[in-house]
Amino acid sequence: MDNTPPLTATPAAKNTAQAATNRWQAAAWATLGAGSCIGLLAGLQEMLTQNLSWSLLLMAPFGATMVLLYALPQSPLAQPKNIFFGHLLTCALGLLLLHTLGVSPLTLGLGTGLGVGLMMLTNTTHPPAGANPLLVMLAGADWQFLLTPVVSGLLLILAFGWAYHKSLYIKGISKHSWPKTS
């Protein structure tokens, strides 16, 4: 008679397997949230304008915002205040520099540096927004850019993010609500 115990996973192996499963589930939910949010914005933009080349609701830094909002929603950098005001302040700064001093290596550097400092001083640091002064100045944007795509896109992103995270929390898929409450 064989007295060897049956093969079972050690607690460490079980924890490692559970961590891998959790990582895959979190990645799947983040993928769904980010893809759905940008897809919704693009669909609305196409429906309203019949044109995806004109930027009514989208700008490239919003793609990076999706990483924080859906992959790291509890990060201080992914909170609504940071997302909204980080983008708004840095876009306004880029527009101000563009329309007063023009585009040069100096103003591009100044816009990026001042944008970082401004977000830090206002406690609205949101790394994707650091690209906004460059985007605004290199694209030669006008002041309308603040309304579309910045404010219009951000309001929809925040509304979708809130509804998405709330539904995951209510269904017990997520342990945390968004925005972070404490």
From TrEMBL:
Keywords: Membrane, Transmembrane, Transmembrane helix. The chain crosses the membrane at residues 26-44, 51-71, 83-99, 106-123, 143-164. Pfam families: TM_HPP. It comes from the Bacteria. It comes from Shewanella carassii. The keyword Mitochondrion does not apply. The lineage of its organism: Bacteria, Pseudomonadati, Pseudomonadota, Gammaproteobacteria, Alteromonadales. This is HPP transmembrane region domain-containing protein. Residues 22-166 form the HPP transmembrane region domain.
